[in-house]
Design brief:
About 50% of the residues lie in helices and about 10% in strands. It has a single domain, classed as Rossmann fold, CATH 3.40.50.1110. By secondary structure, it is of the alpha/beta class.
Length: about 325
């Protein structure tokens, strides 16, 4: 997620729960007065109304899609004429991890009295937290550092303009080389800090898989206890062992989040944790939409590792809409 967007949209309450800042508008992104992306709606649910909450991170919140093209918005459009009493709410928060979902839902989502929750979960941030034994604050700390750089640049406008002019004047091949060199330098620096001369892992450790499954099982039980019907989505990502060489820069870029894993380790983690989602859905007897299998792994659908183009978001919305139409849940 773009750091300027994160700074504009995200905040933490007095309990340390990350959420969207109510009433914020930043470019195409609009947060309503209740703190959710999209248009205003009443907190109190009308009699006979069915509320579907979509809960995820930045990939569900919507980053690269055009305005109102993120998949929860497209899903709402598809359901509106068919089921006038159905309301789709995008309650996603960038960087929201599985361990923090319960506290966020408890405070900010339960008052909506949702009937169905469609939830997906990215893995790299919680993997990094587990390996380092910390709760991730990286987004907030990056925003603070970005603020410092931005404020310094604003006070030194001439230097900023000069840097932009130099960049524009560089040949494309040289510009790409420098971009790749800077990225590799950042990754090497993080590897020195976090790996202690060890090699990045090609396989995701079993203990992290088990921890992820236990957290997911606990969250599903929490939803059921609150009379919310869960629908799990697998987490589609761009990279596979077949196409990884075609997306070298994008794959290298995502390793900045989790230098403990190699390129192969990133792909292995995505595959294994999606398998975990499938297993938990079966054991807990909850609905599953396997978007990871249904979404083509091309740049027509993905902008990067896990964020969608308009067409990618449309694919997710179609898959969910098709499931809802044939599941009987809408009745």
């Amino acid at each position: 997620m773009d750091l300027k967007l994160a700074r504009a949209v995200l905040t933490e309450d007095s309990s340390g729960i990350r959420h969207n800042t109510p009433g914020v508008r930043y470019g195409k992104w609009e947060i309503n007065s209740l703190g959710f992306r999209g248009k205003e709606f009443d907190l109190k649910k009308k009699e006979g109304q069915v509320r579907i909450v979509c809960l995820g991170g930045s990939e569900t919140f919507g980053v690269f899609e055009r305005k109102d093209r993120e998949w929860p918005s497209q899903l709402g459009e598809r359901l509106r004429n068919q089921f006038p009493r159905v309301e789709v709410i995008n309650a996603s928060v960038a960087g929201l991890t599985l361990k923090r979902k319960k506290t966020y839902v408890e405070k900010y989502v339960l008052p909506l009295k949702p009937d169905i929750m469609i939830t997906t979960q990215g893995a790299l941030l919680p993997i990094t937290d587990s390996m380092r034994g910390v709760q991730s604050k990286r987004l907030g700390s990056k925003v603070k550092r970005k603020n410092f750089v931005r404020d310094f640049a604003a006070e030194n406008h001439f230097l900023l303009k000069l840097g932009e002019t130099i960049k524009k004047g560089l040949p494309e091949a040289l510009s790409n080389y420098l971009r790749l060199w800077r990225l590799r330098s950042k990754i090497r620096k993080k590897e020195r800090k976090h790996l202690a001369n060890k090699q990045p892992m090609d396989k995701l450790p079993e203990n992290i898989i088990l921890e992820f499954e236990e957290d997911l099982r606990s969250f599903i039980e929490y939803l059921k206890e609150n009379h919310i019907a869960p629908i799990l989505l697998t987490y589609p990502t761009l990279f596979t062992n077949m196409n990884k060489n075609s997306h070298g820069y994008l794959l290298l870029s995502i390793r900045r989040l989790c230098v403990e894993l190699s390129d192969d380790g990133i792909i292995d983690a995505s595959e294994k944790l999606n398998d975990s989602i499938r297993r938990i859905a079966k054991k807990q007897n909850v609905a599953l939409i396997d978007n990871d299998h249904l979404m083509p792994k091309t740049l027509e659908y993905f902008v990067d590792y896990s964020h969608y183009t308009d067409k990618g978001a449309e694919c997710i919305a179609k898959n969910v809409h098709h499931f809802l139409n044939h599941s009987g849940l809408m009745k």
